[in-house]
């Protein structure tokens, strides 16, 4: 039963028999759990309002009160908490009702210390499952989608990101929409010592100031109309891990002082609850807006900006890192053909050239969507330019013969297209009718 300490466990015992509370407490503390007790439902409610518990052992017979009402009340205050009903043999029927009402399990009194510990370990494991699942998904994502690049500009960004990943410095990630800011935030979390803990994202534009406050810090039951259950809040979920504030430029101005205070002091209050809580959270934020301009216009707090941008990373748009298009396209293709069970295995020369010349206004997200679509509609092994659905845009992007262009510009575009469609430099040189060393020199000259 070694897992008791490593999964952590805050347990509340509710029973009106002092002897039971004493024995249970002894058995559980012996295994390293942290235990609190309550002798009535009123006491239990008061404790639950102040502290977070993972598990509660609840005796359904608390004086005159209906055990089911007490259970309902608890689930309202702490819906994340697992509740195990403790019952006498003669009242097993009520325990079954309690399970229907949301209890996790029941235990028949008298029970042995081993039965009690086993029940605790089982429930605490379930309680931790969601958090572990999230951490695992992060791991799998990291492995499958390991962020990498062949572009010097992007490699510089990744190197700085790695360098600061394991510090607790807040990082602001800038870049156009779809460049992979969320992806980089995930990677930074994965490279940090917080990687085994939760990575929690808040999408700022989707929430009003009031909703954002309760989403971020949680609320107590009855804090506002419709708050029928207490919630923990993202900050608490991210305790020990990373909180990613996506599109921070849209974070409500009215709530910015509270976010600033949390970043500075690590302290916050749930909505409708005066108790001050603490959480150890690393903040990453991202935006495609110009926050400095927003500060000048009074739409974003300067002090908050300086807390968020201890380190700033700017992801270049995809059109400025054409070296990455091919690798990304191949990775997306492998992923989608596997998912959809499709025949495509690679890109024809025309498609490769089109992927390279297109300007990708929607960046990596657009590339991913284009490849997903192509992987579905392509009936053969090679994806051709027609499957990409970029036809007109590519044509309008690519310089045309006879257009008002210098010979140099035309030559540069032509060489870029042939290079993208060729497997090797030698092959490209043959197609262009020049020798490989000339091609090498021209590549350098045009920065290709
Ligand atoms: N380097 C990468 N490797 C694999 N997938 C990537 C990479 N960069 C971005 N993506 C994919 O591209 C899509 C957009 O990425 P992401 O959401 O991180 O961009 P963003 O810059 O945060 O966008 P927005 O500003 O619109 O929120 C996602 O599906 C993501 O998985």
Automatic annotation (TrEMBL):
Q: Where is the Sigma-54 factor interaction domain?
A: 147-376
Mention one GO molecular function.
sequence-specific DNA binding
What Pfam families has UniProt attached to this entry? AAA_lid_14 (PF25601), HTH_8 (PF02954), Response_reg (PF00072), Sigma54_activat (PF00158)
Q: Name one GO biological process term.
A: regulation of DNA-templated transcription
CDD domains from the entry?
A: AAA (cd00009)
Q: Which residues carry this modification: 4-aspartylphosphate?
A: 59
**Could you tell me which residue ranges the Response regulatory domain spans?**
10-124
Could you tell me the keywords of this UniProt record? ATP-binding, Coiled coil, DNA-binding, Nucleotide-binding, Phosphoprotein, Transcription, Transcription regulation
Q: Which residues form a coiled coil?
A: 119-146
Q: Which domain of life is it from?
A: Bacteria
What's the protein name? NtrC-family two-component system response regulator AlgB
